[in-house]
Amino acid sequence: METQTIEINKDLTAAIAVPQGKGPWPAVVMVHEVFGIDENMRAQMLRLASAGYVVIMPDLYSRGGMRRCLTATFKALASGEGQAFIDIQAAKELVLSRADVTGKVGVIGFCMGGGFALLLANDGYDAATSNYGMLPKNMEEALSGACPILGNYGAKDKQLANAKNKLDETLTKLNVVHDIKEFPGVGHAFMNPKQGGGPVFGTLLRVTGAKPNPEAATEAWQRIESFFAQHLSS
């Protein structure tokens, strides 16, 4: 199994991973972290596809690469609207149009993508998973009417201090089905198979505690597989 690059429209490409065997399978839209569709993200796609999901990851930097698109993408994340959301929706529509997809669709994201997953949880998805994703500014408004949400966060992630408690409180108040876990002893990006950020940024990230933790990652993936199996099965 491997990921392939496809064209969604003239301005947008995506990576896709399809399980081996005969479908149909549920679909999952995966939103990449800040470094784009790199080796880590493709590994995450294959990990989820191996569990029986057609996984599509739109390249939110399609219109000029990370340097040109990063600011606009983060502005979209902060405001809850913009080109990134249009691109994610296009990827969702494409994957749902496939003959080997059941019609059930989830959304999952890592880092920056986890923030998008939370904002998309009330936008026609059947389940959403945020892995150390930024919390919405107005949480009650953003998460009202959301589908079931799973969250995986690191206790040593200073960027997202107290994220578990904040999500638990808000989602409980909104009567949204949820399961948020804070993993002790790990920081940001703990689910990456390899150190992200390349030789320069990677060293800085590791110093801040944003580094892989295989043990916690294994448990997080077990939680994701169980969660999606529950909510995306036909």
Folded structure, characterized:
This protein is of the alpha/beta class and 234 residues long. The protein has one domain (4-232): Alpha/Beta hydrolase fold, catalytic domain (Rossmann fold, 3-Layer(aba) Sandwich). Helix content is 40%, strand content 22%. It contains 8 helices and 8 strands; from the N terminus they run βββαβααβαβαβαβαα. The chain has helices at 39-49, 65-79, 83-96, 112-119, 139-143, 163-173, 198-208, 214-232; strands at residues 4-9, 12-17, 25-31, 54-58, 101-110, 127-131, 149-154, 178-183. Strands 1-2-4-3-5-6-7-8 form an 8-stranded mixed beta sheet, sandwiched between helices. Helix 1 (39-49) links the parallel strand 3 and strand 4 (54-58). The longest helix has 19 residues, at 214-232. The chain is globular and about 40 Å long. The model has no long low-confidence stretch (mean pLDDT 93).
Keywords, separated by commas or semicolons:
234 residues, Rossmann fold, 8 helices, alpha/beta
How do the strands and helices of this protein lay out in sequence?
Blueprint: E1 4-9, E2 12-17, E3 25-31, H1 39-49, E4 54-58, H2 65-79, H3 83-96, E5 101-110, H4 112-119, E6 127-131, H5 139-143, E7 149-154, H6 163-173, E8 178-183, H7 198-208, H8 214-232
Parallel strand pairs: 3-4, 3-5, 5-6, 6-7, 7-8
Antiparallel strand pairs: 1-2, 2-4
The class by helix and strand makeup works out as alpha/beta
Trace the largest sheet across and list its strands. 1-2-4-3-5-6-7-8
Order of helices and strands: EEEHEHHEHEHEHEHH
Cα(first) to Cα(last) distance is 24 Å
Shape: globular
CATH-scheme architecture: 3-Layer(aba) Sandwich
For the sheet with most strands, the description reads: 8 strands, mixed
CATH superfamily: Alpha/Beta hydrolase fold, catalytic domain
- The number of distinct structural domains comes to 1
**How many strands?**
8
Determine Rg (CA atoms, Å).
16 Å
Please bin the fraction of helical residues.
40-55%
Q: Report low-confidence residues grouped into runs of 5 or more.
A: none
Helical run tally: 8
Beta-strand proportion: 15-25%
Q: What name does CATH use for the topology?
A: Rossmann fold
Q: Report mean pLDDT, rounded to a whole number.
A: 93
- Supply the CATH class: Alpha Beta
